[in-house]
Amino acid sequence: MTRRIAGVGLGLAAAATLSGDLRVVAAAAAVAVLSAVVLDPPVARSAVGVAAGLTVALTAAAAGAAVALVEGPARGLLMAGGVVGRVLILWIAAGVLGRRVDADRLVGGARRLGLERLGLVLGLALNALPRLAEAAGEVWMVHRLRSPGRWEAIRRGPRIAEVLLANAVRIGDDAAGAAALRGHGGLAHPRRPALEPPAPVVVVTGPPGCGKTSVIESAAAALRAQGSWPVGITQPGVYARGRKVGFLVRDLATGEEAALAQMVERGKGEHGTSYRFSREGLDHAARALGRAAAGSVLVVDEVGPIELRGDGHMPALRRALATPGLTAVVLVVRRQLVPTLLAALVATEVTLVDVEEDPDSGADRVLRAIAGTG
Amino acid sequence: MIDARAWTRAALVGSLWGALELSVGSVLHLSRIPLSGMVMSAIGLACLLTLRRLSPVPGVCLVAGAVALVVKVFGIGGLFPGPLIGIGAEALLVELAVTALPRGAAAAMAAGALVFLWGPVQKIAMVRIVAGQDAIDAAIVLGGRAAAAAGLGGVAAGWVVGAAVAALVTVGGIAGWSAWRLGGRVAGRLGVER
Which residues contact A308 (CB under 8 A, 6 or more apart)? Predict the structure, then answer.
């Protein structure tokens, strides 16, 4: 009870620092000291220690001198007295509060306030600090090695910020991916119903241009040679003068192609992209995905941001995934979208194949993953 | 948010910001290096605008600010209110600017200008709290006397304040623009924007 009264007293004393009446400030300072004696004696001792004394004296002297110069010594002295009281109160309040704050209390407090996600974020942030520090140490070491002179070190300075931020984001993305893989959905917030494949899933990933489509087509050919039945789509790029200018959609079962998307002027694309999509291409893809049947291996290259927002091929993909008896589902996705896809998948068996690790063995790894899941 | 990445990125970028406030901020503060507040503001801008560029989700800057605050609370400097208020205000101002304006460099520049203008506002507010209105009045009178002694007595106080505000807006705008560009470079490095 006494501690509770002391806590309230300290809060009121902190609020009283806003008062212009010096008698109120003096009374509040006395209350703050008494509260500190009850709540946290070491803070009360520190408030009358050398460090606090110097801080209070310097602040009071500076403010008092300024006022004394303008309004006379008497007014300056009063002002200095007020500053002593206010700084003392703030010192005590900050000390008592600071010694009561710990990571568990903060995370728990956020959860008690109904801020579950903020609690999880704070937990992740505090746990990730050692990893961030390790990454920062490595970045600094590389910076020093690559910058022999002082001028070179200064010139390359901004690169440190870039690498540090990229590292932080990468660690964050890894954490999101790991949480999705383990089925922790506390931070995920799917806006649409999740995907529920009736078969084990192989997710093929890698950076743009690493050969994901080639790997998938080789794997589909090998599946056909083994007597399996791959159905679905691939979306090879269309290039002009070495630049990607569009996409085709290829029916894996028949090999028939249709134009799917064409690059247009900036700002004239659809779905926030620089491409315009053709109705025929989307219908062609829907027909290809509609060939999914019991015993087939459903292949989709690729599930992009448009699909993950519920547009593009997603309606047809949902219908295909509702097919009972699929042997396996192979989904191709860019690396940065893996967490999003995993968060949307309701599947207990997911195998990740990163093509970039070894592009030559990509098709074999996909086949092994399908065999392993089946 | 469709997936957890905006949250986890906010956690990590906020954590990085808080750690930089703890280390670089403390060193600058204890070394009494001039304009250290501006340096720390620029670092905060770089973190927040990069985060917002990579995850254009409303509220993400506030989450990063909350994380940086928590990390700073555990710092060796203890619970000094000034930097904590500064971190919270910076996160709020950047969030306001980039939410209210269309996504792009202009919003980033506005965020930078607001953040740099906040520094003096916070300092004046802290002086008002600790020393009262008399100290503010005395500082204004002393500033006038100093201007007169320097031969600037004829210059209206409004012009001086206006020039200071213009300088802060310019420097803040440049810092915001640089931070936005940095965000673009980080996005390019991660292959997020194309």
Answer: A314, A337, A340, A341, A344, B2
